[in-house]
Design goal:
Elements lengths: L2 E6 L2 H12 L10 E4 L3 H12 L16 E4 L1 H9 L9 H14 L7 H6 L6 H8 L2 H18 L1 H8 L16 H13 L5 H14 L10 E5 L6 H10 L4 E7 L3 H7 L20 H6 L1 H10 L7 E6 L10 H11 L5 H5 L10 E6 L1 H19 L8 E4 L3 H11 L22 E3 L4 H4 L1 H13 L5 H8 L2 H6 L4 H13 L8 H4 L12 H13 L22 H21 L5 H15 L8 H14 L10 H11 L14 E4 L9 E6 L18 H4 L8 H15 E10 L13 H11 L10 E3 L25 H14 L18 E3 H9 L1 H9 L21 H16 L4 H11 L5 H26 L5 E8 L5 E10 L2 E9 L2 H18 L7 E6 L3 E3 L4 H18 L8 H11 L5 H13 L8 H7 L20 H14 L1 E2 L2
Parallel strand pairs: 1-5, 1-6, 2-3, 2-4, 4-5, 7-12, 7-13, 8-10, 8-11, 9-10, 11-12, 14-16, 17-18
Antiparallel strand pairs: 15-16, 16-17, 18-19, 19-20
Helix pairs in contact: 4-7, 4-9, 7-8, 8-10, 10-11, 17-18, 20-26, 20-27, 20-28, 20-29, 25-26, 26-27, 27-28, 34-35, 34-39, 36-37, 36-38, 39-40, 40-44, 41-42, 41-44
Subunit structure: Heterotrimer of RecB, RecC and RecD. All subunits contribute to DNA-binding.
Family: Belongs to the RecC family.
Organism: Janibacter alkaliphilus
Length: 1109
């Protein structure tokens, strides 16, 4: 018996060869065939492929794959060396005795550098910080030792025997000598033979026939491996003396194999010259793993291995850019000129499709269009024929979920799919457990909160998870209310002052969760006319009776969370941590009865995390975080692949598996290939040998495998431009090498073309033939088409409205004073909201996470405005300023007092002016009814009337909005009273205010009629008079002849330092950054709402009746 090598560039050829071999039955009819596969995805594909070959009829579609046992390499090695599933030398088990050895040796000289790294003997703060590395460092070292056993077992043997070498004939570097002593200490405390001892004895036993009860058939196969460790090859070669062993290896180029077979065995990677023997650039730059496998397989004796040769090329290879590229790779050379001359590519060849987009979101949108186009063009293509591979599935998973498979949720109002891809079912094959089990997500968030600051945003993220929302009955409206409360109560971070003590703020209670909840709870108990504050708590004044229950639920949630976090503080054993964490999660969550698997999944992960941990090794939260993270990584299952749906997975599980279409998503520069930080404690990384694992080389090999596995099309997508700045970005370096190699494949250097996609899916280039140099429109998105049409309408609208709207039914009979004032303050809002019923979503305020140390201009205005309103409502200065100190929006301590003192100076100045104008008279509200021209009647209430005069006050400088509101109310008051020169209005604020009036009653009625007529026009067409811009126009235009001056003045307000054009209502009406000229457009028909016409009508009377105090 011996070990046989079978090679092919594609795994379908290998699978057919394996099927042919399996069709010859073993001597024992009841024995199972054993096939060892590297990944679950390959297992699923291979089982399906074999089912079409084994026992199938003439059609080749009715067979069955039975009597075949699939194993992973680790399972086979376990059987060979006789180790158990709880092998104490595996990293997750070895980490615990390693921790004990390190803890016991911190004061010994050999352990000095490791002890210093863990904070031993350092100052208290630094020691506490470094102690958080303890478990992660131990796990990292245990993983290194495991890799040493696989790659260089002789090094561990030398260490055990007292020789500190690197396993390659050189002394161990001085700064790594401590690892040899650490290994010797572990050998003394861990029971059983070491991995290197087991390996040597297993190889000897196999070669001598002392195999005992080996549960393996007379022949077995290893399928699809692109990399094998030296120890694995040695074991297989030894097993080949007792069993018939077949290696089915995907190798891109038989010519390369033949050229390298005489290179010899393993040697330092820096001495490997195999790359210089390669003629094809992709084999040189991407094929290191394939080349080094040749050296690894040369380690055993030539008598141990029989090379059965290459199984030949695919039966059919298309004459496309991709097909020719694969042909050149197989031949191991760049195409010669005479061969190039025979290749006449189709100018529209898209076998190798390259797409550069703006960021991950846009990449997924482009992928969606590409896939729908392929499925539409080829009726024989099915989703199962397409494979999408992505280096970072976790980043792209939510984007893919939103772009595909929405079903009925992706329909418009007419019940039509907005995009055909919404009917495509997608299977994300190997997401992390945290991404698929919400309870594990909650557990991970809780661990992050244990030593975190408990910020408002972090807690809100936890509250937003589905299990927590179900437990506390929190719907979307409740979540929005809680967010508003957090902003109003100024919750920033920390449960209370004691919780902030580790951060040096143990005396600052402001902006904590406790302070915010106290304000909410007090707000449910204190009525609006109750005391302004109770003790040192300011109640929230808008907690309605309908929100009392929500306040209670939020309080209970926070009480349970903080109780759990307190229980998880400090240190404890792994068992104690997992028990407490599980109880905390269960206390905060509730799952649907149909999703009890989530609870079982949580319990399983927590149990596994504590399974092998000793009961006397304490862990801190940083240790537990690493312990859990190690269990929450992606675990692809066999059932996740080849289900008939569109499969999305990482680059590894389906490597080398042929598909008609392979898409590579997210191959961004900097993200691919991986750029792992070289670990200074890794002996293998100091001077690696050929065949030893290298993440960057592995990622490059994965790209080469994908190139060779695509039978018809290969689609590559990357971020080709910054999604914010538009700055161009190159593809990942291996992708650039692929493009260069492909362009040398034919006589047309323009192929393959890179399509640079526009930023937005509704860009017209996506939606018209020829827009992206394609004959047909690229996009299938109906929503994007509607958006593009709307954008074209905005680019060159014939008018703001096609025709004037019919006047409302009550427009000619009655107008409310409040509606008139609101309209004059913002005519765009008056037209969109009041006439068309268009409501703009409220702009959500971002929750702050820092304790304020100063106030910006807006924050200072908000404080001053609240205090001024409180003073006008009759509050004493002491109560008003005390309320601000308790509100939590001022900086703490003296910083807040200083800021409030500055606000106080302004407020008290305005209050003194108020007292001077009102004479201490109380404010009154006057109901008014005025009969205007054309039978129109105005009704309403004028507030803030003191002894017959209107007195308004603002913390800011008096501006156009304040003046126009006071003017309209003054006109109503004068016209209703019928008394000439009896009333005036004073508007007070920072700096110089304004006094309006007095004026005759008949003039007031006429001016009021004009304003009502302007509003009437504004109910049919937009009146284009922004309040500040309109005042500036009217003031500069004078009698109407200074048009240029009016344009300059109005332009300064419309697009100046504080541009009125950015007001959200005007932006919604006119579009972003609309020029001033848009305001000069006249309306349809006889109506005219333009700025030059209506601004003087509104503002000339105001300016004529205005003076400064």
């Amino acid at each position: 018996m011996t070990m046989h090598l079978h090679r092919a560039e594609r795994t379908d050829r290998l699978a057919d060869g394996l099927a042919a071999m399996l069709s010859r039955p073993l001597e024992d009819p009841f024995a199972e065939e054993v096939v060892v596969v590297p990944e679950r995805g390959i297992e699923r594909w291979l089982a399906q492929r074999l089912s079409h070959r084994l026992g199938s009829g003439p059609g080749g579609q009715d067979g069955v794959c039975a009597g075949v046992r699939f194993l992973r390499p680790s399972s086979l090695i376990t059987q060979l060396v006789g180790r158990e599933a709880d092998d104490p030398w595996l990293p997750r088990q070895l980490v615990w005795p390693l921790l004990q050895v390190v803890d016991d040796s911190l004061d010994e000289p050999w352990c000095a550098s490791l002890a210093r790294h863990l904070g031993h003997g350092l100052a208290e703060d630094e020691a506490r910080l470094r102690a958080g590395r303890r478990y992660s460092v131990a796990l990292r070292l245990a993983t290194h030792l495991h890799r040493y056993a696989l790659a260089r077992p002789v090094m561990l043997t030398d260490w055990r025997d007292g020789r500190n070498t690197d396993g390659a004939g050189r002394p161990l570097p001085d700064d790594l000598q401590w690892q040899a002593e650490l290994w010797r200490r572990l050998v003394d405390v861990v029971p059983g033979p070491t991995p290197d001892q087991r390996h040597v004895s297993t190889v000897d036993d196999l070669r001598e026939g002392r195999i005992g009860d080996l549960d393996l058939p007379a022949r077995l196969s290893l399928f699809g491996h692109t990399r094998l460790a030296v120890t694995e090859v040695e074991l297989l070669a030894a097993l080949g003396t007792q069993r018939e062993v077949h290696l089915w290896l995907p190798q891109p180029s038989p010519a390369l194999w033949d050229d390298l077979r005489d290179l010899g065995g393993v040697l330092p990677r820096r001495e490997d010259d195999s790359g210089r023997r390669v003629s094809h650039p992709l084999l040189a730059s991407l094929g290191r793993d394939s080349r080094e496998l040749v050296r690894v397989l040369a380690e055993p004796s030539p008598d141990d291995i029989v090379d059965d040769g290459d199984l030949g090329p695919p039966e059919h290879r298309p004459r496309t850019v991709l097909g020719w590229l694969q042909e050149d790779v197989r031949a191991g050379r760049a195409p010669a000129p005479d061969l190039l001359a025979e290749r006449g590519p189709d100018p529209d060849d898209r076998s190798l499709a390259l797409h550069a987009a703006h960021g991950p979101h846009r990449q997924v949108e482009v992928l969606r269009e590409v896939l729908v186009g392929l499925l539409q063009d080829d009726p024989t293509l099915q989703p199962r024929d397409i494979l999408v591979m992505c280096p970072d599935v976790e980043t792209y998973a939510p984007l893919i979920g939103a772009a595909f498979g929405l079903g009925d949720l992706g329909q418009d109002d007419d019940g039509i799919d907005t995009h055909p891809a919404h009917r495509l079912r997608v299977r994300l094959a190997d997401r992390s457990l945290e991404g698929t089990n919400p309870l594990l997500e909650v557990a991970a968030r809780i661990i992050d909160l244990v030593d975190g600051r408990l910020t408002a945003g972090d807690v809100l993220d936890l509250v937003s998870t589905a299990p927590v929302r179900r437990r506390f009955r929190i719907d979307d409206e409740d979540l929005e209310t809680i967010t508003d409360w957090l902003g109003e109560t100024a919750v920033r971070w920390g449960w209370d002052a004691a919780h902030r003590a580790p951060f040096g703020l143990g005396t600052v209670d402001a902006n904590t969760w406790r302070a915010g909840l106290d304000r909410l709870l007090l707000g449910t108990a204190v009525s609006a006319d109750g005391p302004p504050h109770v003790a040192a708590v300011l109640p929230v004044d808008d907690v309605g009776s309908g929100s009392v229950d929500l306040v209670g639920r939020l309080s209970e949630l926070m009480d349970r969370l903080v109780t759990g976090l307190d229980a998880l503080g400090g240190s404890g054993t792994a068992q104690e941590w997992m028990t407490t964490l599980g109880a905390t999660v269960r206390g905060l969550t509730e799952t649907d009865p149909t999703e009890v698997w989530q609870v079982a999944g949580l319990d399983r992960v927590l149990a596994e995390a504590a399974e092998h941990a000793p009961t006397d090794v304490p862990l801190r939260v940083a240790d537990v975080r690493v312990l859990l993270d190690d269990r929450l990584e992606g675990r692809p299952t066999r059932a996740s692949f080849r289900t008939g749906t569109l499969t999305v997975c990482t680059m590894v599980p389906m490597r080398s598996v042929p598909h008609r279409v392979i898409c590579l998503l997210g191959l961004d520069d900097g993200a691919y290939p991986r750029q792992p930080t070289v670990d200074g404690d890794d002996v293998l990384a100091r001077d690696p040998l050929t065949g030893e694992r290298d993440a960057r080389s592995e990622d490059r090999q994965l790209l080469l495998d994908a190139v060779m596995a695509a039978t018809e099309r290969l689609v590559v997508l990357w971020t080709g431009a910054d999604e914010r700045t538009g700055e161009r970005r190159p593809p990942a370096v291996p992708v650039g090498e692929l493009i260069d190699a492909a362009r040398e494949t034919t006589t047309d250097p323009a192929l393959p073309r890179v399509i640079a996609h526009p930023l937005q899916p509704f860009d017209e280039r996506n939606l018209r033939p020829g827009g992206l140099d394609l004959e047909e429109p690229f996009s299938f998105d109906r929503a994007a088409l509607a958006g593009a049409r709307a954008a074209q309408d905005l680019d060159d609208p014939p008018s703001l409205v096609p025709s004037a709207l019919a006047p409302p039914g009550d427009l000619r009979t009655e107008v409310a004073l409040a509606d008139l004032v609101s309209f004059l303050e913002n005519p765009a809002r008056g037209f969109l909201r009041d006439r068309l019923g268009i409501a703009l979503p409220r702009e959500a305020d971002e929750l702050g996470e820092r304790i304020p140390l100063d106030l910006d201009a807006l924050e200072r205005w908000q404080v001053g405005d609240r205090v001024l309103r409180a003073r006008r409502a009759g509050a004493t200065g002491e109560d008003a300023y005390r309320a601000e100190l308790l509100r939590g929006e001022l900086p703490p301590g003296e910083l807040g007092t200083t800021a409030l003192r500055e606000v106080q100076q302004v407020v008290e100045g305005v209050v003194r002016d108020l007292d001077r104008f009102t004479g201490g008279s109380p404010a009154a509200s006057v109901d008014v009814t005025v009969d205007l021209l054309d039978g129109l009647r105005l009704t309403g209430t004028v507030d803030g009337v003191h002894a017959g005069n209107i007195v308004d006050a603002t913390y800011s400088r008096v501006g156009a909005r304040h003046e126009i509101g006071a003017w309209a109310r003054l006109l109503a008051l004068v016209a209703a009273s019928g008394r000439d020169e009896a009333h005036q209005a004073a508007v007070l604020g920072k700096g110089r205010g304004a006094i309006l009036g007095p004026l005759p009653a008949e003039a007031a009625r006429a001016h009021l009629s004009t304003l009502a007529q302007v509003r009437a026009v504004g109910q049919q067409i937009p009146v284009l008079v922004p309040v500040k811009t309109g005042r500036a126009w009217a003031e500069a235009a004078g009698d109407g002849r200074r048009t240029r001056a009016a344009r300059n003045a109005a332009g300064g307000e419309w697009a100046g330092r504080f541009p009125e054009s950015e007001d959200r209502w005007w932006t919604r009406l006119l579009g972003a950054a609309a020029p001033l000229e848009r305001l000069t457009q006249t309306g349809p028909g006889d109506l005219d709402g333009s700025l030059p016409t209506q601004a003087p009508a509104i503002w000339r009377p105001v300016l004529a009746n205005r003076r400064t105090p």
